[in-house]
Amino acid sequence: MEGVLAELLLSQSRDPQALLRALCRGEASAERVETLRFLLQRLEEDEARGGAQGGGALPEAAREVAMGYLVPLLRGCPDPGPDARRCRRFWRTVQAGLGCAEDGLARKRARFLLRRALDVSAGQDDCACACGSEDPDGPSLFWWSEKKKDELLKFWENYILIMETLEGNQIHVIKPVLPKLNGLFDCAVSEETGSWLFHPSWHVCIYKRMLESESKVLTKEAVTHFLELYGSRRLPSSPAFSEFVIGPLMDALSESSLYSRSPGQPAGSAAPLGCKLQTFLVTYVSLLPEEIKSSFLLSFIRKMTSRHWSAVPILSLSKALASVPRCGALGVDGLLALRGVIHRTTVTHQVLLRGAAQCYLLKTAMNLVDVEKVALSDVSMFLVSLRPEESLGRGTSLWTELCDWLRVNERRFRCAPPCSPVGPPETSLNAYVKSLVLDYIKAPPWEPGDSGALPDGSQARLVALMVMLAVDVEGAKTQHSEKQRTENVLRLFLDPLLDALGMLGANAYMPLPKTDRCLQVLVKLLHTCVWKGPGAADDEVLPLLQSLVLSTAESVSEFILRRLTARELSSVSDLDRCRLYLLVLVELVTLHRLAGWKRGNPVWRVISPLQKASVRHLQEEDGNQEPTLGDQIQRVVSMASLAMVCEVIGQTPELQLETLEPGPVERFLSSLPLTQVLQKPRMGPQSSSVEEPPSAHGWGKVTAQYIHDQGKWVCLECLLRKRHTLIPGTEGEVPGPELPAVQQLARTLQAALDALAVLPAERVLPVLRCMHILVPMLLTSSESLCVESFDVAWKTVSSLSNTQLTFWPNLKAFVQLVFDNRVLTIAARVKGQAYLKIKEIMFKVIEMSAVRAGVLNTLTNHCCRSWLESAPGVARGPLSCAGSYSELVLEACVFGTVLRRDQRLIQDAQDFIESLGHDCAANVVIEKTNREDPYVRICAVKFLCLLDGANVSHKLLMEDLAVRLLEKDELVSRPKSRSHANSLQHRLKNRAWQTLLVLVPRLDQNFLNRIIDKIFQAGSTNNQASIKYFVEWIIILILHKFPQFLPKFWDCFSRGEEKLKTSICTFLSVLSHLDIIIQNNSEKKAVLQQALVAALRWCFSHSFSVRLYALVALKKIWSLCKTLCVEECDALASAIESSLSHVESMHREGKAQKNWQRIQDHFFFTVFHPLQDYSLETIFYTLPRLSGLAEDEWVTIDKFTGFTELPASAGFQWHLSRTRLRQLEPGDWSQQDVGAHSGEADDPSEWADVQKKVIPWENSVPDADSELPPQGRAARLRKSVSRLIVVASLTDKATNLGGLCRTCEVFGASALVVGNLQCVHDRQFQALSVSAEQWLPLVEVRPHQLTDYLQRKKAEGYTIIGVEQTARSVDLTQYCFPEKSLLLLGNEREGIPANLIQQLDVCVEIPQHGITRSLNVHVSGALLTWEYTRQRLPGRSHGPAGPAPRPPDYPCHGDRQLR
After folding, report:
1. By three-state DSSP, how is residue 11 classified?
2. Alpha helices, DSSP H only, in 551-689?
3. Is 155 in contact with 1229 (CB distance < 8 Å)?
4. pLDDT at residue 1450, as a whole number
5. Residues 14, 20, 21, CA angle at the centre, nearest 5°?
6. DSSP state string for 655-666
7. Cβ-Cβ contacts under 8 Å for 295 (sequence gap 6 or more)
8. Cβ atoms 1231, 1151 nearer than 8 A
9. How confident is the model at residue 1258 (pLDDT cuts 50, 70, 90)?
10. Helix axes 512-528, 574-595, angle to 10 degrees
11. To 10 degrees, the CA torsion angle through 111, 116, 122, 126?
């Protein structure tokens, strides 16, 4: 009926104002309001279509209706009628404005409506009302009861206070209010029934508002507070909470920065937010009713598939899901959703985190899937989506857990329908897998149009995975190992496959798809069967499978030989089959090599015929006829086969001795054209047609594979490696048979450079390997060509830095090429272009490593290994050239970047996963790359530990490196005398001194005599604590081993106090370990006497810190003197005892006594022992940790021992530091006077008082229009405006004007007069006004116009009041402002000019009690404006001195200023 009435009104007129006024003219009723809704909806649709009359009239008309009709309904109409408080749509609109509105004004309006509804409810007697929600059984959206009035008012007042506070976006203001949110939850749940009293959507609005904030700190606070809810209280379930969790909360959880580690949290621990998320999800899901638990979890998982997630959030969410207790909540849809999440994880580049997320998702499936709702085929499709090289590896704990899950639920899975495309119906795991194998290898029917392409390999991987799982499940059913049972189970599954493989060689008519599938599943079985976890030696399945495969090796080898050599591969799709055949052949060679190579085995009998046939096909000439497509396909196949043979021969010494003997094959490989292009085949009778015939489809693929085929370079590499010992020193000699590629080395290297220019990224690796063989033999005779090779190779490799899969193998080959030990030796000896180019490339690699982690690791590992190994053909030894490239070792010793926040987040997550060890399958399956920055230093330090000081070349290298490290320290220290803690400068210096500490014990006295002054000089500088400890430790070790340096040490105490300042503490700390220093000294008494004098002198220093260090040293030395009975020191006994007793007795209280006690308990003076604690663990982990270095600099001993690229040094102490030192914590001695208890007040149960900003419009309708003038906007807000005018035309500074603008707007002045309105665009003005100019009228009056303006205002009845100190000025506390007052402010420096003082009615001055003669003009204006406002507050009709007098009778004419 209401809709019909609306249509009738529209048919009469389309003017919005006329229609709405006519409708709202009558008596209020529910029908009239509903008709109004229909009418507004139709008008809005018409306006959207462009059919509205008088554009822009609808918003204005709607505003009039809201102001004049709807809002009065909220104010409480005595007559019964429609009540907005009972309207569900009204409250949903208010909630949307509170929580979701992006516009601040809309949020203000929503809060106003809420407050207005509360005022109406509280103002009426017996005004009970309720508004139900969409759920009839759920709580009301709003309700009011007179009996609960006080509780309701308290609840809503706190609610509005929280919402108003959130507008500030200031965490220090918001955080104290958050405990009140806990109170809202306490009031919202009934203690008797445990049900909701207030609809939880109101609480959700608060969280939504916090999540919409621009502040990430506030967002994290909101997420943390919500997740902790269920940990502190038991809340009933609510659809509103579930919608919030799946919506805004999960959107917020996608922000990676939320998962940062808390300060002080140990490395390797989980992110606090991740732990809270895990606890919340476990608790929340357990409290959900069973009927909605499934839908919630499914929606949660689907939400994870709806966006791209970073590595850390997806890992945390997956881990939380995996922690949910077992429940059959998910079915097939859940498995499909989990597969979608797994696909989302693949977009992240962090392999370890990606693999860990997959592990957790598999655990989620095992915990949450109802096995009775899914079939084994559904499970297998889910499992195949996991990457075996990242997560699901055989032998891991996850694999064992999966096998147990399958074993327990084996017969509970739902039976798949017979028509299932995945496989036949199954009744048990064994039956399913057996049927799966049979169904897979069965030849599919041929269909017209079938291209004959190779089948997809994913199905073969599925079959192999399920076979291995079924075998291990059967093995888990018995407690003892039974080899015969395992073999029987394998045969049960694989007999059809083995029978088919056994007939490959004899059955020439076996369908091609069947052969493809058999070979595919054979390869996948061999890959899947590899045992990844511990206990590989006890695995019975892999040897049995290899034995079964070897039984078919002869048939498979013959089949592959026939297919590769008998011209049976003739189409483009056959190229994929060629790769499959060669891969199978390589696997068979590997199996024979593992089983023990025997002469005459099936593979041995195939290699030679395959090689000869491939050479024959490549040598065939077609004469003048154009080749066919089949001919060219055969050429490509032959080249790939020949490359595989050469690669296998290089890896199998037994084959290398028996094949590829000098002769036609070698000559062919040597003369093989490296840039030959395949001729396009003839097209047959269809060549005249416009369209390309089917036989030519994919010809581009064939050509590209032949031109770019790495087979030519693989063959050439094999030939060069075999013949490199026969290659002459000069190219003119010809040894043995004619081999062009071997003898014309320069031409071959030039061809390699040409190949690098055209080959794609994935094909350059064999070329680089060939260049690795060629360059050392050409460096002397063709240096310029070799330099060009270095340059081209670097450009090629550096251009691949964004290609993950191809970059690292190519970088390794490049490093082996340029930094080959023979190349480095020759270049260092000649010192020519090659030497300079190598140095240039070395620094480019170091530069790249700053943005690409792992680059310098590759270079450092290679060089350190090659320098330590014996170098054939290098007469001077492997370390003969290392000294020429010591810059590399230097940069490696101090390498390390300061991690960005996102990098630190990733590193923390990886440390946590690695700390799980074998409990996380990703740690076992994923190959360790050691590409993190610390491994560069680890490699360099382990290399230095392996050096022998008795070896001359080793000694020279260590000495050169020590000098460079001291120079590095000096260079880094130049920009600043002292660096900030944990800055890059601090870290570089720290790493340099750590390395020096490793070297010092193996340096001799002669060399130390050259650098000892620099070491003492470093001790005299102002260093960070960690560097100070290392310098002191080095000095102690040197003085202990070589007491001859003691005179230079005593000289350090003779410098002036002004020069030493607090750096003397370093030498005093060394003195505290005098017992270690004098162990090897025969003149102990003389040393002790001199030490006492030095320490006693500094006990009277002006610096309190110096006195503390001197007293500690004095106490230790004096104790040592007493122990050794040094009578020569008795003369100083009285002074010493007096000093020590004084420090003990005079500082009984206060910080002095605390500091004295702390420094005595300091680890460096109590626990630390310079000799017994000398180990890598103390140098690189314990001491950095105790000295407050960032965790990035803590290198644990596990990383040293886990780095196996270099062997461990047998003579170097690794981790034998004393247990007590390792167990100390930094807080055991660090000063904590400042902020020691700062955190105690940060977490109160509820604050007694909190900040609450004044809301001037809280009792008015918050409506404004940016097109209205400030007066109009203020009127819309019903803002209280006084009759005060503030004139600031004489004020110049934008900051003062901005502050005055804000003050005038806050206190309701009617206008602010300025000298130039352009000042509002000044940034300083805007920073102080904070948008007050939008709500306050601004008037422009130039200074020269002020006289006329003041006279005009005086004529309008305004009293002109000057803010100035004059001879007749009135005290502000005694003056009563008239209603129409005009305040004239003066200039910042000159005040009010004399000519304008004559225009004033009165001058008012502010009483002062200080020495400064005046206040800032903004402050003065603010004080008078407030006093004017104060006198007009409600209830203050009188001024400060009784009834308000009229303005003074005396004018200010002739008055004078007082300064």
Report:
1. helix
2. 553-565, 574-595, 602-619, 629-651, 653-658, 664-670
3. no
4. 34
5. 115
6. HHHHSS-SSHHH
7. none
8. no
9. very low
10. 40
11. -120
Percentage of the chain exceeding pLDDT 90: 31
The count of C-alpha atoms lying within 13 angstroms of the C-alpha of 739, restricted to the half-sphere facing its C-beta, is 26
Q: How many helices (H) and strands (E) does the chain have?
A: 70, 9
The model's pLDDT over 26-84, given as tens digits with 9 standing for 90+, comes to 555 666 666 666 667 777 777 666 654 545 565 666 656 555 555 555 544 444 456 78
Q: How far apart (Å, rounded) are the C-alpha atoms in residues 1175 and 460?
A: 53
**Could you give the C-alpha distances from 560 to 504, 507, 563, 586, in angstroms and in order?**
9, 13, 5, 11
- The confidence band for 135, taking pLDDT boundaries of 50, 70 and 90, is confident
How high does pLDDT run on average in the chain? 81
What DSSP string runs through 342-385? HHHHTT-S-HHHHHHHHHHHHHHHHHHB-TTTSBHHHHHHHHTT
Provide the token pair at 866: 């090659």
Q: Please report, as a single letter, which amino acid is at residue 1291.
A: T
Show the CA angle centred on residue 374, arms to residues 368 and 375, nearest 5°.
135
Residue 969 burial by Cβ neighbours in a 10 Å radius (0-12, 13-18, 19+): buried
Q: Are the C-beta atoms of residues 89 and 95 closer than 8 Å to each other?
A: no
Neighbours of 581 (CB within 10 A): 25
Nearby residues of 589 by Cβ (< 8 Å), 6 or more positions away: 603, 648, 652
Express the helix, strand and coil content of the chain in percent, nearest 5 each. Answer: 60, 5, 35
How does pLDDT run across 562-603, given as a tens digit for each residue?
A: 999 988 888 888 888 899 999 999 999 888 888 877 777 788
Residue with the bigger pLDDT between 536 and 1377: it is 1377
User: Hey, which bits of 651-691 come out as E strands?
Assistant: none
Q: What is the separation of C-alpha 768 from the centre of its chain, rounded to a whole number of angstroms? A: 35
Query: What does the alpha-carbon distance between residue 261 and residue 908 come to, in Å, rounded to a whole number?
Result: 7
Alpha helices in 371-511, H assignment, sequence order? 376-383, 397-408, 429-441, 457-476, 483-502
The total of other beta-carbon atoms located within 10 Å of residue 1216's CB is 12
Beta bridge partners of 369: 330
pLDDT tens track for 514-571: 999 999 999 999 999 999 888 888 888 888 999 999 999 999 999 999 999 988 888 8
pLDDT of residue 1445: 40
d(CA 921, CA 423): 29
Strand 1338-1340 and strand 1311-1314: the pairing is parallel
* Residue with the two structure tokens 């470093």: 1018
Look up residue 325 and give its amino acid. Answer: P
Tokens encoding 148: 């609960």
Residue 74 CA to residue 142 CA, distance in Å, equals: 14
Q: What's the rounded mean pLDDT across residues 357-365?
A: 94
Q: Which helix (H) or strand (E) holds 584?
A: helix 574-595
For residues 1267 and 1273, give the distance between their C-alpha atoms in angstroms, rounded to a whole number.
9
pLDDT at 223 (0 to 100) = 92
DSSP for 1032-1070 reads HHHHHHHHHH-GGGHHHHHHTTSS-HHHHGGGHHHHHHH
pLDDT band at 819 (very low <50, low <70, confident <90, very high): very high
920-944: per-residue pLDDT in tens?
999 998 888 888 888 999 999 999 9
Strands 129-131 and 142-144: antiparallel
CA distance 593 to 800: 35
Least confident piece of the model among 193-197, 341-345, 441-445, 1016-1020: 441-445
Q: State which H helix or E strand residue 1324 sits in.
A: helix 1323-1329
Please say whether the beta carbons of 414 and 373 come within 8 A: yes
Q: Is the dihedral of CA 35, 38, 40, 46 positive or negative?
A: negative
Query: What one-letter code names the amino acid at 869?
Result: E
Give the whole-angstrom CA distance, residue 155 versus residue 182: 11
Residue 1458 binned pLDDT confidence (cut-offs 50, 70, 90): very low
Strand-pairing partners, residue 1404, are: 1363, 1370
